[in-house]
Amino acid sequence: MSIRIILDSPPEFYTNLDTIRGQVVLTLVRDEHVGTITVKLEGESRTALGIPPENPGLGIARERRSAGDTVHENHKILYKVAQVFPEENGGAAQPPFVLNRGQHHFPFQFRFPFNNACSNSEAMARIGGVMGAGGIFGMGFRVMDGTKQLMYSHVTKTLPPSFTGFPGEAEIRYFVKVTVQRPGLLRENWRYQMGLKFLPIEPPRPEKTNQEAYARRPYAFHTKSPSPTPPPLAQKKRSSFFGRSSSAPSTPVNGPPSPAGSATPPSVEMSARLPHPAILTCNKPIPLRLIAKKLVPSHAEVYLIALQIELVGNTTVRCQNLVNTEVSRWVIVARHGLSVPLSKPEDAVGTEMVVPDTLWNSFPLPNTVMPTFVTCNLSRDYQLEVKLGLCWGKPAGPATASTSFRGGRGRPPPPSRDPSDLPQELHLPLHFSTVQVYSGLTPPPALVEAMRQGRGRRVSSSTRPRPQQQQQQQSQQQRPPPSPSSPLSAETHHHQQAAAAAPALPPRPAAQQQQQQQAAPPYDDAPPTYEEAMAEEMTGPVFPPGAARPAYSGVTDTDETSLPPEKG
C-alpha cells in the first residue's frame, strides 16, 4: 500500500484566492475494505514557550504548572475538509466498500480563503466528532475538535505566511492531509500529508503622495587640536670633567599653531527618507533617499565613507499568558571605503545634496524576509536602520580606511603624518521605528473595488437616518448616543437602538406592516463582508506580463515540524 498526493502545476508558493488542485493516488497490493477517503487543507500557527522560574503560575491555582514546563498554543488558521470517496451524492450505498488491487485516483480541489478560520467561533463550535455514515466504529471519518479553539483569544486577519526559523518555539505551516479510513476496531487508518508554502496577498496600497517619512540627525565635527611645531635641536655642549656644562641648557619653543587647528569644524544634517507610509516590498530594493544639508559656514569638505542598511524584524511569540520577542537582522547593504562628497567649501548654508541611490538600489530584500503580519499567537513587524560614516577631510584609500561598522581596522596611517591632518570620522545611525513589508502580490482589481464599495455602503448605511430613529429623536435628546468609533460599529448601534425600541411601539396590522416593508428603502441591507468580497469568480493576484511569482524561502522544511508534540 502507498499513498501519494500529486498537485497540478504547483507554483513556488500559494496565496489567497488560489485554487489548489490535485489527486490522491492510492496503490493497493490486495483488495481492501475502505470506509471513506478524505482530504483536508490545513494551516496551523503553533507556539511553545517554557514557563520561567519567576512566573510559575498559569491561570487559577488548580491549573498551575511547575517552572520549567512548556505550554503550547495551536491555532487552526485554515481548515477545509472534502470527502473524495465515496462521493457524497453517489447514491444509497453504505460503507464499507471494497477497492480492488491496483492504482486508484481521487481528484480534489480547494480554494484558499482570505482570513483565518479560527476566529469564527460559530464555525469552530460546529466542527468536531465523527462525520460521515456508519457511526464511531470506523465507519466515518474523524475531524478536529473545534471547541478547543474557543479556549484561546483570536483575531481576524489575513492568513499569515509560512514561517519557521525559531525551532521549538514558533512556526506557521500549511499542508494537505489525506486519511483513508479502514473499518474495524483494530485496524489503523492510513494517513499521508504534504507541506505547502504560502505567501499572502498584500493589502491595497494607499495612493502615492509627496509625503515622506524621515529620520534625521546632525553630524557635528569637533575642532581639531592645534599641533605644536617640533622644537629645534639643541646643540651639544662640551661638559667639564665634573659634569658641569659650559652654558645653560636651551628650552624648547613651540611654533605657531597649524592652520588646520583654527579651521571652523563642519556640521552636516543627514536625513534618510522613505515614501509615507513607509512600505518596503519583498524581493525589491528599498525606496530610500539620503540627503545632506550644510548647517554652518565652513570651508571644510565632508565625505560619505561608509553606508550600511539593516532591516530589523521583531517577532512577538504569544503562548497563553506568556510573551517572548525574538529579534532578527538582515544586512541589506554594506558599503565601505567610499568617497562621496557631501559638502563643498563654496556651498552656502542650507545647501542640500542628494546622495546617489546607485549605492543601494541594486540590493533587493532577501527572499527570507516575510511580509508584516499579525495572527492570533504570532506577529512580525520591522524597523529600519541606516548607519552612516562621515569624514571631515579627504578620506584615506580603501587599504588605509580607518574603521568600519563591524569594528575592523585597516592599516594604520604613516607615523610621520601630522595628527591634525588626519581625517576625523563620525559613525551614527538613522532609525525608522516602524516600517511595513508587503509581499508584492497585488490584489485583483475586483477585490479592491468590492472592498471600497463595502466601506462606502457601511458609511452610507450608518449615516442615513431610519424611520424608527426619526420617531425616537425626542426621547433620545436627553441622552445622545456616543459617537461611533467606526462605520460598522455605528451601524450595529443603530440596529441595537431599533431593536430596543421595537417593543414600545403599538402593534400594527399584518397588511399595514407588509405594505410598509415593501415601500421602505433597504436600510437593513447588510454591507458585504470580507468573505462575500471573496467571490468564487475572482481571480488570484495580479502579476506583470511575463513575470513569475517571486522567490520566497520562509520555510526550511515544509514537511517536518520543529515543535514537540503537545502533552495531554
From TrEMBL:
Name listed for the protein in its UniProt record: Arrestin-like N-terminal domain-containing protein
Domain Arrestin-like N-terminal: start-end pairs: 4-120
A GO BP annotation: ubiquitin-dependent endocytosis
Top-level taxon in the UniProt lineage: Eukaryota
Annotated region (Disordered), positions in chain: 221-270, 399-424, 451-568
Comp. bias intervals (Low complexity): 459-478, 510-528
Cellular-component GO terms for this entry: cytosol; plasma membrane
Gene3D superfamilies per the UniProt record, alphabetical: 2.60.40.640
Organism, scientific name: Chaetomium strumarium
